[in-house]
Amino acid sequence: MIKAIKGTKDLLPSDAPRWHYLESVVKNIFSKFNYKEIRTPVFEVTSLFARSIGEETDIVGKEMYTFEDKGGTSVTLKPEMTAGVVRAFIEHSLGAQQSLNKLFYISPMFRQERPQAGRLRQFHQFGGEAIGSSSPLLDGELIQIAYDILKALGLKDLTVKINSLGVPETRENYKNLLREFLKDKKDKLSEDSRKRFDKNILRIFDSKIESDQKLLEGAPMLIENLDEESEKDFELVKEYLTKVNIPFEVDPKLVRGLDYYTKTTFEIISGSVGAQSALLGGGRYDLLVEQLGGKPTPAVGFAAGMERILLACENENSFTVDESAIDVYLIRIDKELEMTVCEIASGLRRAGLNIDCDYLQRSVKAQMREANKFKARFALFVGGEEFEQGNLNLKNMESGEQQNIPLDDINRIINLIKA
Ligand code: AMP
């Protein structure tokens, strides 16, 4: 038997209502802040990701689904959205049409990670990108959008963490400070952290290994060595969050995995999903547009993992969705009325109702069972004596009340059902 690829998941009809609900909350809240949807292709040329995310990051270094197409071009299934959005922003000169572009997306992403709880190889993210302003108020706005979405889903156990990585010069200076601090301790670091020491030293803070964290105790912190501008912006982000009642923690160790971040970074953590606890992450990326060949354009964004958010919602039992119900199930009493049933069903559907009927020549009893299974509000009986007298029998499934309605007065049925 052929099975789905490891780390991928089917979303079955029983999962769909929760996804629809999540997507509707996302769209609704982004709309309140006037963000417009963008959709980019699932695959892009590989160099786009290598150049934006950074060669030394986990994503580019080991997790990308990269292959050569028949024309010999190296293409990659998108591991994240920002690179594609920025590519589209430049390619379509969106900046010339609109000085600030506020965009959101919902899309599958692909990373060849070791599958585990909360880590898939095809997963879904929603996110927002505001391209064209360096205002820290937009950093605040995006954190607020992210937070409001999670709150609207009913989640409670949330921690907003923020940090600032400063401008690149600040970061380079700081990296030297950190290198100096860790120089004598390098041999004691884990193998992964030793590699990071040479390639991407900030990421040592991401290490989950206790001995690494012990070695970092007393290290100088980037947040204490910020340039004046980054510090001022960071204060404004904090002020914004305070004004809109979003509790937050400053986490000086929040460095995030991608190379393109500058100044503000943030994450929202859930206490109810286990080890992979980051529901979303983001930050400012003021240099990326230029780095990908566009005019210098400051930007800020975040990406949220939808599977992880739904897991948190499930664990917190934070929302329930009504099981979808149909308006009417048509019950065919006489076998030869099959086509008549289709005709009536069709009229009711075109009038805007959700209708189903039997296609398996089932008995009346079995059709009633179906009507109950689909939580039909009404059953409409087609056949028997009533039909011979030119009537249909409409049964309200909740009250049990039944009434005959002339076949040529379908509008009455529609009105009764819509009432
Ligand atoms: P990132 O783009 O790595 O900053 O991730 C942003 C969010 O996407 C994370 O906080 C997770 O919720 C989600 N995410 C990232 N990688 C995966 C994955 N492999 N499987 C499921 N969710 C993921």
**Associated small molecules:** adenosine monophosphate
- Overall, the morphology is elongated
CATH class annotation of the largest domain: Alpha Beta
CATH architecture grouping of the largest domain: 2-Layer Sandwich
Alpha-carbon Rg, integer:
28 Å
User: Could you give me the name of the CATH homologous superfamily of the largest domain?
Assistant: Bira Bifunctional Protein, Domain 2
Please identify the structural class as seen in this structure: alpha+beta
Query: Per DSSP, what share of the residues sits in E-state strands of 2 or more residues?
Result: 15-25%
Q: Residue ranges: pLDDT <50 for 5 or more in a row?
A: none
Q: What is the helix tally? A: 16
Please explain how this structure is put together.
The chain has 2 domains: 16-167 and 227-316, BirA Bifunctional Protein, domain 2 (2-Layer Sandwich); 328-418, 3-Layer(aba) Sandwich (Rossmann fold). The chain has helices at residues 16-32, 46-53, 58-63, 82-91, 94-97, 136-152, 168-182, 191-199, 210-216, 228-243, 288-291, 306-316, 338-350, 364-373, 384-388, 410-418, and strands spanning 36-37, 43-45, 66-68, 74-77, 101-110, 122-131, 158-164, 249-250, 262-270, 278-284, 299-305, 328-332, 355-357, 378-382, 391-396, 402-406. The chain has an 8-stranded mixed beta sheet with strand order 1-5-6-11-10-9-7-8, with helices on both faces. A 5-stranded mixed beta sheet has the order 13-12-14-15-16, with helices on both faces. The chain has a 3-stranded antiparallel beta sheet with strand order 2-4-3. Helix content is 38%, strand content 21%. With 419 residues, it is of the alpha+beta class. Adenosine monophosphate binds next to strand 6, strand 10, strand 11 and helix 12.
